[in-house]
Write a structure and sequence with these properties.
With 480 residues, the protein is α+β, with helices and mostly antiparallel strands. Helix content is 49%, strand content 15%. The protein has helices at residues 6-22, 24-36, 43-55, 58-63, 72-89, 92-111, 113-118, 120-125, 137-154, 182-199, 203-234, 244-265, 286-307, 428-441, 459-468; strands at residues 160-162, 165-168, 171-174, 328-330, 345-351, 356-363, 385-394, 397-405, 411-420, 423-425, 446-455.
Length: 480
Amino acid sequence: MKVSDIRFITLLLLFLSCWLYVYSDALLAMEAIWRKSETFAHGYFILPISLWLVWRDKEYLLASHVRISGLPLTLIFAALIVWLFAFAADVNVLGQWAAVLTLIGILWLLLGNELAGRYKFPLAYLLLAIPMGENLIPILQDVTAWFTVNLLNFFGIPVYRDGLYIQIPTGIFEVAVACSGIRYLIASIAVGTLFAHLTYTSLKKQLLFILFSAVLPIIANGIRAFGIVLIAHYSQMKYATGADHLVYGWVFFGFVILFMFYVGSKFADPEVTTQQKSANKASLNSVKLSSPLLLLVMLFSTQLLINNITFTVIPDQPYPAISEDENFQSVARSNWGITYNNGLRRSHLIDAKGLEHFRAVFANKQTQGELIGWENKEYNPQRWTAISIKNITIKAHSAKYLLLRDSRGTERVLIYWYKVANYYLTNKALVKFLQAIFVYNKPDLKVEIVAFSMVNGSEYDMVKQLSAFNWQSPGSVVYE
């Protein structure tokens, strides 16, 4: 059966339709990130590039016969298990990994081992469509700050670093999220991987160039940040301090990419013409149909489990989450920027001693919103920098302690924890894991975050106050 055979095309369309149906939520979430984030806008081009890479070899493809394989069923089964976990825990990136791996597995199953092996790069390149890598931002910010400070010292410019703030005689600079270089890094890896495939036939050279395309933008971004500070310093803060430094950054990145291509082209392998192999004839018999039938059962069983998950409808406005008395005043807007919206309950109060209390309660699975998500933050990182972070214990419960400081030197203590069932947690990944487990056997479970904060407070005083609470007293704050 050739690729152009109507039977193969029918099977392909059938399984692509099933794949779209099962992973519709993950795919829509992926496209939304491409649309909203400049960092991952390249995702729109990954599938067309993969198709183009296959179409470059269309003579061989159209002349070949497919052999349906059962080997990728293991990959697809594992991806579906990951999808069930990701859907239950609202972990978008895991769901998107599962979606792309399942697509690769379906194409591998239908094309067979030989054709899938020949087109392994276009299939693997699809993984770059997954919007991932934002967890590297704090590391990249530190690396950028390190480069900037050391280069300033090398050129004899007095510099003082406080976390992500860099102070020189002419002003203060912050290595913000946009300055981390994550956009340059991800774009460089996507372009560099494609260049390596098209330019080299040696796997060793391909891997070395991909590594080069990852390291170069990190170093270049450090130099770029130093250049911005240098320009601002010598222009008395007139240039490179506003939108112009973003333009400068992209122009600089363009030269970096050109330099990367120039270096890579110096080691290019001569183009090798692949000889056309004789097509292997294979019939579509009942034995071969067992793999597609098993795949259909797996896909629809997964969707059946997902359809049975209970979703809680959230109210238009969250109900109070803390029992109030005359010692409390409501906080309309958080000074430290804690944001946990779209929950069932939420309260933010301040007591007579200046201690702020925050509590937000969520259903384990809601029609909108979630406890652990990119939109929910314990503090505003644009204003506050975490100077100290550690785990502490309050009344035998785990809690997270943070000392925050802003650019004016104001310090604020923040203590918080999450509660899932009877577990008190500070690790977000563990919270997600427990949520996913309880989705299928405790559909009515509620999860929450409890946080306390005080300006210029001490860890000792905060812990002492929290330990003294009679949390279950009707006239006091209720947290359990």
